[in-house]
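pls design
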């Protein structure tokens, strides 16, 4: 049954993350905690399906203020597939060198900020533009992606480096480079990708580690509550406090 084969592959990726990436996750989380404790941001960026882990972070029940999603609509919304904002336009834009520079001009950054980028292969130009600009501005750059599987892949950027080569810290998603993981009878291409599951797994392993570090430092977290629990009479107050804290920080960007 192919469903069970996908499940086996997904579990294998998660186990490999647990076996090999805990130290790197702790290093990344420490930098993020430093930014949040300073009243600054962990900016999060990705393209295509690599925006899914960004949308998973905040606003999200169980997430907390300090993560700033940089979600660029033309690099995210291609669910019409063809026609306006279709897949062809998306593929062109993520490979268009200079587009990331234009995106970065829309925000104000601080050297105390951290830039957290998700990229499966680390070779496309818009992500590399963002990383280069972040480093130029003094930020630490953290990259999550299929780093070990992408060794030897040639960058598309004129700087000559991949995203993984530019990063201060790399956390390997442990997903196969093909992403899809299940062979299908009479077909060349596989089905059942696992990179999104890997990214979301890493998001919560990292964010919970950031929370642990900050709690141990005595930093108050503004945690996004569930407003669907019967009898919780203060959920809306806690939500308002979260949004007020977010507004206060976002005023700086």
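designed seq:
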């Amino acid at each position: 049954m192919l469903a069970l084969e996908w499940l086996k592959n997904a579990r294998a990726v998660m186990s490999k993350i647990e076996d090999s990436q805990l130290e790197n996750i702790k290093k990344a989380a420490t930098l993020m905690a430093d930014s949040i404790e300073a009243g600054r941001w962990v900016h999060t960026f990705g393209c295509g399906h690599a925006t899914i882990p960004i949308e998973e972070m905040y606003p999200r029940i169980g997430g907390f203020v300090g993560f700033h999603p940089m979600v660029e609509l033309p690099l995210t919304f291609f669910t019409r597939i063809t026609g306006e904002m279709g897949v062809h336009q998306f593929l062109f834009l993520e490979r268009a060198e200079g587009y990331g520079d234009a995106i970065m001009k829309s925000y104000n950054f601080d050297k105390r900020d951290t830039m957290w980028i998700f990229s499966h292969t680390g070779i496309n130009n818009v992500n590399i533009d963002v990383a280069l600009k972040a480093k130029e501005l003094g930020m630490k750059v953290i990259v999550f992606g299929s780093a070990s599987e992408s060794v030897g892949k040639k960058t598309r950027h004129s700087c000559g480096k991949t995203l993984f080569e530019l990063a201060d810290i790399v956390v390997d998603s442990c997903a196969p480079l093909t992403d899809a993981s299940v062979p299908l009878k009479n077909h060349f291409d596989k089905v059942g990708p696992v990179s999104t599951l890997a990214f979301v797994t890493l998001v919560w392993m990292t964010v919970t580690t950031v929370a642990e570090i900050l709690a141990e430092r005595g930093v108050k977290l503004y945690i996004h509550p569930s407003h669907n629990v019967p009898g919780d009479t203060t959920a809306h107050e806690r939500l308002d406090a979260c949004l007020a804290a977010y507004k206060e920080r976002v005023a700086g960007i």
